[in-house]
Amino acid sequence: MTPITEVEGRRVALSNLDKVLYPATSTTKGELLHYCASVAGPFLAQLDDRPVSFLRFPDGPGGQRFFTKNPPPSTPTWVKTAEVPRTEDKAARQVVVSDLATLMWAANLVVEFHTPQWRAAAPGLADRLVLDLDPGEPASIVECCAVARWLRDRLAADGLSAYAKTSGSKGLHLLSALEPTPSAQVSAYAKKLAREAEAALAGLVTHKMAKALRPGKVFVDFSQNAAAKTTATPYTVRAKDRPTVSAPVSWEEVEACTDPADLTFLITDIAPRLERDGDLLAPLFDPAGAGRLP
């Protein structure tokens, strides 16, 4: 029988807790769920009021993967959903992870959490900007850090504060809090920055997605600011060989990075980092820190 546990008054089924999901580190599903519970505070802050898309990998990163936006079958009635526009004349509903019970229910499905740059209360009105720095081999997150520093200073010139997190894969994400702004305007501004970075850092940056242009360069992906796009949510675990996390990092860590291992974090690393540094992305929630696009 599937074990049932009570989480904040909700009955949540947690299955196959001994199942090894990450053979490289012998990490079990139970350990994955424990991680989500241990970082629930800052994780839920990032998920709150944002419709979630799930990349599911129920048999681990080496098994089948599938992306879903619709609430999975058998979603409990107490799980909140929000209406989300899909096309101009059609809307659908997506899960909103707003409490610990929902987080544990969703984590039991073995998922990556992906969220847009806008909140369910205001679809298409972004309250943050994201720049996804994706290295093309042999470039790595080390080169991403150099590009991130340039972009940080460029954003600051426009009055925007940038905060960094690892993608949990190969790259780095930069986030800036915004006064609510139409996603199309944010996308246009992000594209402008990506082009400026390519001009300023010749040979290191490309703003074009074509894979033929990316070896040895950092692709500054501005497209995730589009209303229909999502980005890996801070603190989510990724479907990689090891249980790597999309982890907030300090600018001191970005500046000191000389090896990809310097900015690779597993689920066992995050709680100690939170205890030492707190939530490095907490400033994103300070209304006084929200910038306005020029």
Automatic annotation (TrEMBL):
Signal peptide: none annotated. Pfam families: LigD_Prim-Pol. InterPro entries: LigD_pol_dom, NHEJ_LigD. Residues 28-280 form the DNA ligase D polymerase domain. This is Multifunctional non-homologous end joining DNA repair protein LigD. It comes from Streptomyces hundungensis. The lineage of its organism: Bacteria, Bacillati, Actinomycetota, Actinomycetes, Kitasatosporales. The gene is ligD_2.
